[in-house]
Design goal:
Length: 334
């Protein structure tokens, strides 16, 4: 198969993204990746507002995506959409648009797992074969590997995601939102203060660390020292678990996905750990780390090649609690 074009809709939370990719002899090429993000006045996400936002902007994002790709509707070969996991009202807005396009253009409809799409675009962009996936965003912290034909979670946070922990501390310290970039800057002039190091088996926890840092701040500790110590502690915990996953699974590559991949110190630590084991480390470029339509299109095309989860547009539905290990990924060879 080649020259097939997949259009995809990302619609699991705040972002309505529409991306297009093309199957070429050299690999999958991204043609366009347009998006519009819901922002509420008071912060947070109000489910019904989310759905209305996505319904309102989808036509213009779709037009923009066709234009950026330089193609016409008739060139589209298949439609993919993020079927889950995610917030039901947002997912429903994506589903109804995907169904209507599938019927209108008379093209196959593919349901895609949003988390698996984050991993697959990371793998393809970094040109890695079978890495350990370190996924660290606002809400997520997971260490994942492909084993036994599926993506499997080897370690994860027992409470909040690392990004949320940094933002929680940042709120109290008056660093603005998101606090990660400011914490990285301040940490350059900080000294180490001991904070709880929470690793249990392959899992990590960040909520207690953020609380302790907040308590120390109230007692007068320097904000720079706390930023430095938060980073060193949280990053070391994830590096430790990642190293164990590498050893356990016998993999030789690590990729870092998610907004916290912007942090140079985090990348440096993972890079040092990988080099010491003779492995290779790749941060995924930030433009492909956030929620986007191209990642759904990329995985949709891979699934289409292997006939995985092609749906009937009449009775296709969302899957808000879809687990990442609940789908086959046969194209990665361990
Ligand atoms: P999710 O997809 O998990 O719901 P999200 O969409 O908010 O969350 P991302 O956009 O991937 O997640 O990442 C945002 C997080 O990344 C924020 O918590 C932010 O503080 C953090 N972050 C961004 N830049 C940096 C940085 N330089 N250092 C540390 N953290 C950072």
């Amino acid at each position: 198969m080649s020259n097939e074009i997949c259009l995809a809709i990302e619609c699991t939370a705040h972002t309505l993204g529409i991306g297009m990719v093309k199957d070429t002899k050299k690999g999958i090429e991204i043609l366009s990746n347009e998006k519009d993000m819901y922002v509420s006045e008071k912060g947070g996400m109000i489910p019904n507002e989310l759905r209305e936002h996505h319904r309102k902007v989808r036509d213009s994002v779709y037009e923009g995506s066709l234009k950026a790709a330089g193609i016409k509707e008739k060139d589209i070969s298949l439609i993919a959409f993020s079927q889950g996991p995610g917030m039901a009202p947002a997912l429903l807005a994506g589903l109804e648009f995907a169904k209507s396009l599938s019927v209108k253009l008379n093209k196959p409809l593919i349901g895609v797992n949003h988390l698996a799409a984050h991993l697959e675009i990371g793998r393809q962009i970094t040109k890695t074969k079978d890495p350990i996936y370190v996924f660290v965003s606002g809400a997520n912290t997971q260490i994942i590997a492909h084993e036994g034909g599926r993506f499997r979670v080897f370690g994860e946070t027992m409470d909040i995601g690392m990004g949320n922990a940094l933002d929680k501390f940042g709120r109290l310290a008056g660093l603005g939102f998101p606090a990660g970039p400011k914490i990285e800057e301040l940490a350059k002039n900080g000294k180490y203060i001991e904070l709880p190091y929470v690793v249990k088996g392959m899992d990590v926890g960040f909520s207690g660390i953020a609380t302790k840092a907040e308590q120390l701040l109230k007692k007068g500790a320097k904000v720079e020292d706390l930023c430095f110590s938060l980073q060193e502690t949280c990053f070391a915990m994830v590096a430790e678990v990642t190293e164990r996953a590498l050893a356990h699974c016998g993999k030789e590559e690590v990729i870092l996905i998610g907004g916290v991949a912007a942090n140079k110190r985090f990348c440096e630590m993972l890079d040092i750990m990988c080099k010491s084991r003779g492995c290779r480390f790749f941060p995924v470029p930030l433009q492909y780390c956030g929620d986007n339509g191209a990642m759904i299109a990329m995985l949709g095309l891979m699934q289409y090649r292997y006939s995985i989860n092609t749906l009937n547009a009449k009775n296709a539905d969302i899957n808000p609690n879809w687990r990442i290990d609940d789908m086959e990924v046969p194209w990665i060879k361990g």
